[in-house]
Amino acid sequence: MSEAVAGTVAERFAQLYGAEPEGVWAAPGRVNLIGEHTDYNDGFVMPFALPHTAVAAVSRRTDGVLRLHSADVEGGVAELRPADPAPRSDRGWTAYPAGVVWALREAGHPVTGADIHLAATVPVGAGLSSSAALEVVVALALNDLFELGLRGWQLARLCQRAENVYVGAPVGIMDQTASACCESGHALFLDTRDLSQRQIPFDLAAEGMCLLVVDTQVEHSHSEGEYGRRRAGCEKGAALLGVDSLRDVAYGDLDEALARLGDEEEVRRLVRHIVTENHRVEQVVSLLTSGETRAIGPVLVEGHASLRDDFAISCPELDLVVDTAMASGALGARMTGGGFGGSAIVLTEAADADAVTKAVEEAFTAAGFTAPRVFQAVPSPGARRLR
Ligand code: GAF
To answer: Which residues participate in Mg(2+) binding (predicted)?
Structure first.
């Protein structure tokens, strides 16, 4: 898909900037199979890349200027000089590529400017990491063109810094690492403490199953306060328990840890979610690696209940997807991503996928919700150069 758009993106670049681009790159969005909100607690996550990508045609400049254009946003070419100190108030789309240039320069990399034209197919505001795709595609292009020699995980760290400091969204490292490092046919088992990775084969079609992504069309945004409040609550929990991060609370010690939190009810719930969610990621890895793929279904459903009841970040639309999918024969379902809207995933027998989709669509109509967007997700390649 991205390969097919490379030519169109390059042509548009030439129209805009008067010369062929030096190259064209793609970086995907992601869905997270399991491991939600664990990434800023040094924990485990397990995303895989979507076929939907951000594609960038890019050429170097030598005058410090960054020119940006997007096929997906109204308006002409934006001309910027990513400033120091970094702005925290610029939340428009140009903040993501500009933040990446800022973060590369701040880390001492000689990025002397660029002309960039972008086109993306990752749905925006759907919890599928459209921002990370935008950051990573720009980071990879600049890494190649300026011969910086950075590895995927290093680019992910710089993109996270761009988003935390330049854009002002306190996100973890999962989405950027997923976009940079995922591989086709695999889910990425990532330890966010040291970014060590294992590619876990995840070929549902071969086993007669499929994974549906249900975009509820309820828009979410990480820069808004709720995500930051959950993060601060987790940090408070770690401080009260005297550990560096909630990753350090072992699953077997959970009851004792909860007892020590006394009447801090909200923090107790956050801690319980993070500790049980890390355990669920380990369960899913073990089930997938022992060929018991269908058995991950109930673990996904438990994860959803934990996000709904303990972490309190679901919404009626996401709950309706999970409840309806399970009532109509799905193997498992849960919300995915940051929450407060966005998307859910549904694991189902391939033969049941149409019936489950129809049931979810009908339930949304009956509830008076906006129709969801449903598609099948196949684990796809991570960021790469297209030409
Ligand atoms: C968002 C964030 F960007 C990630 O870092 C992660 O915390 C996720 O929400 C929740 O797991 O996608």
So the answer is: 131, 163
